[in-house]
């Protein structure tokens, strides 16, 4: 338990020193929020986490955000969060919750080799704007890493508060998870008036692809993508169309994949995370269940998720291979050895056991499909992988 004495006092904002993350994290591409895998006993499975991250690096994410919302930071201990941070590269680590926990997370993330921090909301309570400033300043005082503000829940920043915090060069970005475009526009303008041309703005809404066209219009060109963690081929098909200004292709991706995914997501609180983990299990990577208070999808919901993935992957096949979508920006090099991150995942050099694919996986047999009145069985998309032998179809992916 963190004591008050261990919490550093806020310090005045420095007037110099460039943001430390600028040279280490490109922030140019989809922002990747990996899940945190758990084994059968409920412990964090670091080998599976490393495999999960390594499999997405060929798609050139703009940064990796481990132990954040999709990574179930709310359910991790400080030691668990630090362990997953240590296994990734180009890391923006999540911190938040009670002030003492946020300080411990910030210190642990820096010791584990993180490049920057994403400051999630305080736990349970809502303070004033001055209180939010003090919260962020205390996190800043816990170490030397730059931070991105997460505008969501109990941490909703006014434009003037963001401008005030942006006076500190270690505050490098703003992620909007509220969806108030007028307020977000005010924030963009206020930071511009403060002279922070390099300041970063992210759309952080759930399934941000559906709203990103609007966010680009107000000056927020970057967005996070939970779907990238589950199906990077589909996420990159959308991103390629978004970058190229191909609205017909982009909207087709939204109609075929993202809109049905959001409809399923909205049925149960927490499905923004639960569905991503379920989708990874469907595709052959056993990331385990979600931790409480989240719940896993039912077998019927898993079937619907399978259909959505089938359709999205087929569309991605038509769009082509979008790994390293921007040839002008090759994958950034992994951080140098000796920065407090033992055994990092390195591009082009995987240190994990590859996930074995067992060939195409069939959907429910014809008997079950007739019983449900949904027509004859059909083959699954080959990219969905096979379930381990000997496990019943309807229970295979229940986590």
How many helices does DSSP assign?
Answer: 13
**Looking across the biggest beta sheet, what order are the strands in?**
2-1-8-7-6-5-4-3
- Which percent bin holds the helix content? 25-40%
| Structural class determined from secondary elements | alpha/beta
Please name the CATH architecture of the largest domain.
Alpha-Beta Barrel
Q: Which geometry do the CA atoms define?
A: globular
Number of domains: 2
**Low-confidence segments:** 1-5, 13-18, 325-379, 386-399
Query: Ends: how far apart?
Result: 31 Å
Main beta sheet: 8 strands, parallel
- Strand residues, percent: 5-15%
CATH superfamily of the largest domain: Aldolase class I
Q: Tally of extended strands?
A: 8
Mean of the pLDDT scores?
A: 82
Walk me through this protein's architecture:
With 399 residues, this protein is an alpha/beta fold. It folds into 2 domains: 27-230, Aldolase class I (TIM Barrel, Alpha-Beta Barrel), CATH 3.20.20; 245-321 and 352-399, no CATH class. Helices cover 38% and strands 9% of the residues. It contains 13 helices and 8 strands. The chain has helices at 46-56, 78-86, 99-111, 129-141, 159-166, 181-193, 212-217, 226-230, 232-244, 247-265, 271-282, 299-319, 366-372; strands at residues 31-32, 63-64, 92-97, 116-122, 147-151, 171-176, 200-203, 222-225. The chain has an 8-stranded parallel β-sheet. Helix 2 runs parallel beside helix 3 (99-111), helix 5 (159-166) runs parallel beside helix 6 and helix 10 (247-265) runs antiparallel to helix 12 (299-319). The longest helix is centred in the C-terminal third of the chain and has 21 residues, at 299-319. The chain is globular and about 50 Å long. The two termini are 31 Å apart. Mean pLDDT is 82; it is low at 1-5, 13-18, 325-379 and 386-399.
